[in-house]
Amino acid sequence: MWLLTLTGFAEKLLYAFSLKLTPVWKILIHLYSSFGTLLWSTGGKRSSQPREKREGKREETAGVEDASGVSVNPVSVNYHFTRQCNYKCGFCFHTAKTSFVLPLEEAKRGLRMLKEAGMEKINFSGGEPFLHDRGEFLGKLVKFCKKELKLPSVSIVSNGSLIREKWFKDYGEYLDILAISCDSFDEQINALIGRGQGKKNHVENLWKLRRWCADYRVAFKINSVINRFNMEEDMNEQIQSLNPVRWKVFQCLIIEGENAGEDALREAERFVVSDEDFEKFLDRHKAVSCLVPESNNKMKDSYLILDEYMRFLDCTRGRKDPSKSILDVGVEEAIKFSGFDEKMFLKRGGKYVWSKADLKLDW
């Protein structure tokens, strides 16, 4: 700071005398001023960029996971191509903030880019992925990924309420895994959570989907979010009977702007459970061999998430900060801003036997 003050004072003083001096002196004064600026910029590391641009740069690079330049391989990608849903789960962390869905050919272009970048598994989610175009849009993407891109694994996460047997007849052969969200086997608790639609019975529908998965050779999976309303429930008997290939058990997660905060469409604070309560639930179900637990710590940054614009979403700061779309800047550039923790992805068992051809299931 003292160098800046001294330099500025000297410049003003010399400038005052220079008004009556020769052009040679004026040149010397100009050189001195330039030299002072150089000293400041190199010694104090002061950026010459405007403040707005410097702050924008910090914001832009904040989501970079690995500053060392190590590239992230998009082995497993979760594409939330729609935010719209027919359920109103109170803890939902990907809410209906837009109604946008990419045109089919643009979505295919992005999926091809991901395959060329190293993607082996694609998971389609929402929102509710069967809501848009009555599942036809989803079916066409599933078929494209398996038949044309030849991906080892194509999966879907759905609440199951809109799936019809005809969809299995048309597209079941191209689907490896269908994951159905079920947080309780008590319909009253499902209603409290918001996982219900009129008189439809969510649990009865779950059993019907289980049978269809067996009939059409699709691996069946269950996802459950543990929250304040179901944390005391004993699901051992039902899960054992349904016999899914995997039972993903998530701890209720808070995401600013989605299910918490002023701009959020949900209020998940009342659903949150402590780490201790989550562990108690896991301990109660430790005999279930297919159980795959995911605490907030394991879940938050270990997923590569694409939104409806095919932007990676960085959740490292407790909210979803989007990258630029892969359709505009490419996968390699966009993924730098995904916040993806590849080590945690592997640690939580993110890579597993995910192709139904390799699962060797007894249909």
Automatic annotation (TrEMBL):
Annotated coiled-coil segments of the chain: none
Domain Radical SAM core: 71-291
Main localization of the protein described in the UniProt heading: endoplasmic reticulum
GO molecular function: 4 iron, 4 sulfur cluster binding; catalytic activity; metal ion binding
Catalytic activity: CTP + AH2 + S-adenosyl-L-methionine = 3'-deoxy-3',4'-didehydro-CTP + 5'-deoxyadenosine + L-methionine + A + H2O + H(+)
Membrane topology listed for this record: Peripheral membrane protein
Cofactors, names only: [4Fe-4S] cluster
Pfam families for the chain: Radical_SAM
InterPro entries, per database record: Aldolase_TIM (IPR013785), Elp3/MiaA/NifB-like_rSAM (IPR006638), RSAD2 (IPR026372), RSAD2/Viperin_antiviral (IPR051196), rSAM (IPR007197), rSAM_sf (IPR058240)
Region Disordered, residue ranges: 42-65
Subcellular locations according to the entry: Endoplasmic reticulum membrane
Any one GO CC term of the record: mitochondrial outer membrane
Regions of compositional bias (Basic and acidic residues) in chain numbering: 49-61
GO biological process, one term: positive regulation of T-helper 2 cell cytokine production
Keywords (A to Z) from UniProt: 4Fe-4S, Antiviral defense, Endoplasmic reticulum, Immunity, Innate immunity, Iron, Iron-sulfur, Membrane, Metal-binding, S-adenosyl-L-methionine
Subunit details: Homodimer. Interacts with IRAK1 and TRAF6. Interacts with FPPS. Interacts with HADHB. Interacts (via C-terminus) with VAPA/VAP33 (via C-terminus).
Family the entry assigns: Belongs to the radical SAM superfamily. RSAD2 family.
Identification of the protein by name: S-adenosylmethionine-dependent nucleotide dehydratase RSAD2
Organism the protein comes from: Vombatus ursinus
